[in-house]
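User: Could you walk me through two proteins back to back? I'd like the raw sequence and the structure tokens for each, with a short line separating them so I can tell where one ends and the next begins.

Assistant: Of course. Protein one, sequence then structure:
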Amino acid sequence: MAWSKSTTTKHTCNGGEGPTFGRKTAGCPRCDELLAGAKPVQWGASVKAMQTTATLHAIRTHDCRASGCGPICVKFDW
């Protein structure tokens, strides 16, 4: 997975930390964008989807005979 720097406008409200409890601050460039209808950044949604895809791929391609699991495989039982 390639990480990239965020291309969204930075918050200047609360010292750059963003709005408190989701309250948008007029005059903050990012809050103004959000008030105008811009989509919020969704952290972790794509990472979780990639982890799920990788886990499903590992389960589907797991070969008990090649890895020597034995008669009962508990490789993905967690």
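----
Protein two, same layout:
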Amino acid sequence: MKRFRKFKRLISSIRYSIGKIIGPIWYRFFGYKHHIIKTSLTPAVWYDTDTRILYAVMDTVKWYVDNDMMDIWTEEAQEEELKRVKEEYDGESQTQQIAQLQHCFEADQIALEIAAWWENYPNREKEIAEEDNYRKTDVLEEKLYEEEQEMLIKAIKYRNTMWS
């Protein structure tokens, strides 16, 4: 029995050692690549860091809405869920459940808002590029920058709600 345990430990340590060597190679070529953020940036010689951050965050939110977001809560579904919670829970637990649900509803709406804004982003850039009046271009660029900041802040604020 004692020899069997030693043998089992030896096999486990060998497997672990081989796994440490083979694992990274295996996942590099065949495994999931969730550690890589694919953006909608076109290939170019250089992008500034602020642009890469914007695209990474916004494309990740867009990917979440398109792929990971379970269900989009309609108003009727929200009402039904709140009604169910009111029937099933009492007192403090009911209050907590309702607050948690309302936070989820709000977070889903924020994610949808960010994704919709991001889908329209290329149109906004095109509008700025096609503008002939430099003074108006400056105003449009400043407005777009403020919107970018607002959406980035929302994405960061609600990032802990974007899980599947």
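Helices lie at 2-29, 49-68, 75-88, 91-130, 134-157.

Let me know if you want the two compared in more detail.
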